[in-house]
Please model this.
Amino acid sequence: MRLGLVVDLDKCVGCNACAIACKQWNTSGTSGSLTDYRPYGPDPSGVFFNRIRHYETGNYPENKTVHFPMSCMHCEDAACVTVCPTGASYKREEDGIVLVDPEKCMGCNYCAWACPYGARELDREEGIMKKCTLCVDRIYDENLPKSERKPACVMTCPTTARYFGDFDDPESEVSVVSRKREGQELFPELGYKPVNKYLSPRNKVEIDQHDVVEPDLVRKVKDWVNKVVEL
Amino acid sequence: MHPAFSVIFFTVTSGAGYGLIALLCLFNFLYFGMLFDKTNFLIFSGVSVALFTMGLISSTFHLANPKNAWRAFMRFRTSWLAREGLLAILFYPTLFLYLILVYFDFYKDYFLLMQLYSIYIFFFAIVIIYCTGMIYACLKTIPQWNTIWTPINYITIGVYLGSLIFFLLLSINEYNINPYKPILLIVISLAFITKFSYYLSIKGPRHGIGQATNAAIKLKDTNVRLLDVGHTGGTFLTDEFGYNVAERKLSKIKWFSIFSGFFVPFFLIYTYSYLFDNIVLCIFAVVLSFIGMIAERWLFFAQAKHVVNLYHGSQQC
Model:
């Protein structure tokens, strides 16, 4: 199995619900807590597994906002696991989820340096590196109805911009949708083979808003006369 | 990259310590026997051990969870950090055995064995410095580090600092230092040339890795700019990777480190015994070179741009 996420950038509205659902589920999950520093102070900060950035693409009037949620890509050749000196970071054989063993982590930050996606964040209070677990404590939970055995971010997404599934199964939803929409990997040139895919926004229909009518001869002559008179 | 002082101190002092012991053993090898009398050799080795031990202890200060530091040797098959740690620990018994053999005058009776042992320690120490460099050089996410110059710089600067201390110890013990002077000047020049090559190599746009935000977020449209980073306060990512220093300040510190770390010590050593024969100036050269190299190491971090900055609006890393 090669579990991962697909994010449809056409659907994402940047509401941050996935980040909040993630925080809520995981702060009491196996990798919890997701410590907040000074939550009610003047400069609140804290640990997140999922962060949403916002970009603008194209030029006016064809410009467009793209909301861009990023979490761990659960790379097939994960550099964070390669560089980890203690063996705290590991990639599960059975489903490819990259996890941190809090019993072994010494908080050296080296894995965070090796990750190009900023997916790992040090919990300064616990001294342990934290990262997306793909809700490993939820997706296998047999007490939950089958339809809810999905990561919290996928469950909560109000626009269903997030898909979860097994990329090794060519008929799974994630495989089909990323094949159909040419799912993009981030930083493929680094060779870490990220599993998560992003569906780029489709081309917008261009709305004709320009005055592109060629002036007729009379108009041209009038313009020319006006120019000469103004000289 | 955020420059952590504990890591800067670690790389500079442990480099100097391994450089010094490498030189001591290399000279034993080249001299076909003990270059110094036993006591001096043991004292010199002690200085080296003190230096790299201080460095290694300092490296644990930047760990957020130091109680697990003993696990840092587990993944030596893939991790350069684990390799460095493991070799650094294995180096202690190896060196102590050598020192014991030196103490019991093995060089007289088992010449060939000791020659091999000397050159073995030399390579061992150099390989440790190489591993320290590779901790940084293996990170593809930081283009300024991901170059062959990084481990070369670590080795040449480690040997250079070691050789300056070697020189200082020689002059304190009133050895004739003149034969070593040209060697030292060559080592300083090499360290300078390789460091300068590094500075030249990281100049200008970096190729290969995602050049701009649009490459990082993989949109088909080429014109992508950041609207909002999404966080309202500082995060781990901004603290660790978002360390921006003005170009002018970087340039000033670069030239300070070149003058204090290379040019002035070179001049002081070059004129040593011509102009002056003063141990104080020799100490001065050592102190200046360490300050210069700490500035150099600070710069190594401050100039490094992690590719995650592309997601935070940098158009180039």
Summary: The helical segments of chain A are 17-27, 79-83, 110-114, 136-139, 152-156, 173-180, 217-230. Chain A has one domain: 3-230. Chain A touches chain B through 60 residues (CB under 8 Å).
